[in-house]
Amino acid sequence: MVRVALCDDHAVVRSGLRRIVEAEADLEVVGEAAAGAEAATLAAASHPDVFVMDLGLPDQSGIAATGAVLEASPTTRVLVLTVHDDLAYLRRAFEAGAAGYLVKEAADVELIQAIRQVAAGRRYVHPTLGAALLAADAPAARLRGPGGELSERELEVLRMIALGLTNTEIAGRLYVSVRTVETHRAHIQQKLDVRNRAELVRRARDAGLLEEEDTNL
């Protein structure tokens, strides 16, 4: 049996998840929590194989709760189940130690598959986000414009421009001259066929070059 714990601050959601899980002969729910602190306590007491974790909790973020659960029960695998269909949240969840990430709107179809996959020691990513993550891991291939692909250094400069750094500040961080930064910027604009900073910011965001804290999510 795969032993599953649930954490969501809505009792109705937990009830629905429990029904889905317990309809499977090889899965059982060993406990429920409505907040992060409860989740950590439950993990320490029952050591579930899989902990299904919401991100929007009343006492702390699901990211923090994920870390607390794993500290309390290192053998537990955390499957994040959230409304956030966003790469920045996905990255933060995995950085915190989560083994899977599933969007709630697909839970009725994919939850069981996701639980079994993370219980087996594999990583699970919601299919749509998985494709986006692969694309985000190869930004140079995605940032091709009429003038060609951006180089690694040009991608680095583009990200700093999007963060609002001046040419002088970028030069200081990269240990190059301001003239070199100006040249990189000109090449970026030529390759992507953009004319102003607003367009550069949009292209950087679309390419996944900005992290969660950069976009104030």
Main pleated sheet: 6 strands, parallel
Counted beta strands: 8
Distance between the termini: 38 Å
Rounded to the nearest angstrom, the radius of gyration is 21 Å
Low-pLDDT parts are 212-217
Mean pLDDT across all residues, rounded?
86
CATH fold topology of the largest domain: Rossmann fold
Structural class: alpha/beta
Helix-strand topology string:
EHEHEHEHEHEHHEEHHHHH
Strands of the widest sheet, in order across it, are: 2-1-3-4-5-6
Number of structural domains: 2
- Beta-strand content: 15-25%
**Name of the CATH first level of the largest domain:** Alpha Beta
**Helix amount:** 40-55%
Shape: elongated
Describe this structure in words.
The structure is a single chain. With 217 residues, the protein is of the alpha/beta class. The protein folds into two domains: 2-134, Response regulator (Rossmann fold, 3-Layer(aba) Sandwich); 139-215, Arc Repressor Mutant, subunit A. Helices cover 54% and strands 15% of the residues. It contains twelve helices and eight strands. The protein has helices at residues 11-22, 36-46, 62-72, 87-95, 107-119, 127-136, 139-142, 152-162, 167-174, 178-192, 197-206, 212-215; strands at 2-7, 27-33, 50-53, 77-82, 100-103, 124-125, 144-145, 148-149. The strands form two sheets. The chain has a six-stranded parallel beta sheet, with helices on both faces. The chain has a two-stranded antiparallel sheet with strand order 7-8. α8 (152-162) packs across α10, α8 packs across α11 (197-206) and α9 crosses α10 (178-192). It is elongated, with a radius of gyration of 21 Å. The relative contact order is 0.10.
